[in-house]
Amino acid sequence: MITRQDVDNLCVLARIGISDAERDELTSDLEKILEYVEQVKSVTMPAEGDMNISKHISQDENILTKNVTRDDTDAYPFKKYTDVIMNALPDKSDGYARVQRVLGVGE
Amino acid sequence: MNLENLTILQARNLLDNKQITVRTLVDHYRRVISEKNHEINAYIEIFTNTDAEIDRAQKMIDKGEQKTLTGIPYALKDNILYKDHQVTSASKILEGYVASYDSHVIECLKEEGAIPIGRTNMDEFAMGSSTEYSAYGPTKNPLDASCVPGGSSGGPAAAVAMDSCVFALASDTAGSIRQPASFCGIVGLCPTYGAVSRSGLISLGSSLDCIGPLTKTTEDAQIIYNIINAYDYMDSTSVPLEKRNMQSRAFHKPKKIGIPREFVNDPGISSDMKASFDRAVSIFIDAGYEIVDIEIPHIALSLPVYYIILPAEASSNLARFDGVRYGIREKGEDLLETYIKTRGEGFGKEVRRRIILGTYVLSAGYRDSYYGQATRLRSLIREEFINAFKKVDVIITPTTSGGAFRFGEKSDPVAMYISDLFTVPANIAGIPAISVSFGKTKDGMPLGMQIIASHFNEDALFVLGKVLEDNK
């Protein structure tokens, strides 16, 4: 059972603003979707062992386990991408992304 | 010169025999786009600054140094990065964003000298099955404008179906290439997970996303697959080539075809589709294949498993869109409110719905019962497929339960989700699948048959796809 309060909490967690009308609609949509996906709980599965995630889906070994430095670490010349990445920022100043004040808010 | 419905090899011949130039071919497709796109809305942007690519391709041909795709125009889905060009995943939140690098698939096609002709419409962030959820408005089905083209790759599929390019590149997370291919009467391939690099694809569900082609024929799909199928160190899930050979059985001519009988007898399947499927089966029998009924006990749970794993992955992947680093920003009173406003207004309704669903299934107290259970079931379904492929070479199912539906017909989210019923198991197991156009509804709309193979056995799909095409 999903309540409107649950949806409000999820929206804060997900950093998504919604209107009051959408909150009602979303509450009933989530209810329907969760009712549909509940089916997965009908199968009893061991909580540990082979079935427990992390396998590459088309490969039997985990290729991320080797802790060696990749040989491409100096592939990019210094500042090669700086300008193009800076250009994508919605608000910037003197080579920095500009955001609103974080520290001291609400004091 | 008749330039209608050119396949890759037909266009290749015309270009190599100097019957047409690369520019003539590009201009021809631009003309088709300007005639048809205002009604169909397949393209978001037409690339007009490709003169250098056109000249380079023509020079390669003139010097006799052409490759398979030199001078061949293609369309791109709006979630594949093409350096110095806009890319938005059909979302308002990425409005004006310009790609800072080329995706690996674009690098492969640049190497070939292929010509990108435009970027095409899609459901926002590839979430949807009808292209109704695009910030740029819906794409219409070129065969009947009152019907959807399917989704999420409705734009690229419509672009190929309205003959405005030779082929298109798109992504498939649950059927996003195969379902629109089926609705638009063309061929769509979702390769093995890890066969084609995801570097430069805007992520939806990272453990499910695959890049693949939409084409007019199975042969064309095979040609594109052979070019984009490569190891890439920029994608940590790309499988090294030597590992693929060990894993995939040495290719042999497929003989046994499996049918998961209980699954394909789903009550939701239309009578047109049922008849077409039975006809496809009899064609395979006539062609000398052995049909075997198989059981993949938990296959029907692939869809609910998907609707837990996908929102979970998407809610994490889309956390990066915060109005700080790219796209739009809707300013609020403080930083938190800026995030909330930017994401509330920048994301469309379906994207908001899935992020919130993903947040729910990953939240404390629910994580193991939803996400944990779904990932365990996913492993089980994958094992069941691997076991099935010990008995048969390929598996066939319909691609969808029927032909293209009408706009607004599936307004309930679960009804829309169920349109991926037959396509999603391949993504859950990471195995390759193709949809080949075969049969029609009583209204004359195309239907598609799906062929599924084991990991890295795409070649078997092409063999069987051609059998169906030859017996249309």
Automatic annotation (TrEMBL), chain A:
Listed InterPro entries: Asp/Glu-ADT_sf_sub_c, GatC
Database matches in Pfam families: GatC (PF02686)
Superkingdom per UniProt: Bacteria
GO biological process: regulation of translational fidelity
Protein known as: Aspartyl/glutamyl-tRNA(Asn/Gln) amidotransferase subunit C
Organism: Candidatus Nomurabacteria bacterium RIFCSPLOWO2_01_FULL_36_10b
TrEMBL record, chain B:
InterPro entries (alphabetical): Amidase, Amidase_CS, Amidase_dom, AS_sf, GatA
Domain Amidase: 26-461
Keyword Ligase in record: yes
Subunit structure: Heterotrimer of A, B and C subunits.
Reaction(s) this enzyme catalyzes, per UniProt: L-glutamyl-tRNA(Gln) + L-glutamine + ATP + H2O = L-glutaminyl-tRNA(Gln) + L-glutamate + ADP + phosphate + H(+)
Role noted for this protein: Allows the formation of correctly charged Gln-tRNA(Gln) through the transamidation of misacylated Glu-tRNA(Gln) in organisms which lack glutaminyl-tRNA synthetase. The reaction takes place in the presence of glutamine and ATP through an activated gamma-phospho-Glu-tRNA(Gln).
Entry-linked HAMAP family: GatA (MF_00120)
Pfam families linked: Amidase
Lineage top rank: taxon: Bacteria
GO biological process: one example: translation
Name the record gives this protein: Glutamyl-tRNA(Gln) amidotransferase subunit A
Catalytic residues identified in the record: K77, S152, S176
Record organism: Candidatus Nomurabacteria bacterium RIFCSPLOWO2_01_FULL_36_10b
Record key words, sorted: ATP-binding, Ligase, Nucleotide-binding, Protein biosynthesis
Gene3D superfamilies registered for this protein in UniProt: Amidase signature (AS) domain
Family: Belongs to the amidase family. GatA subfamily.
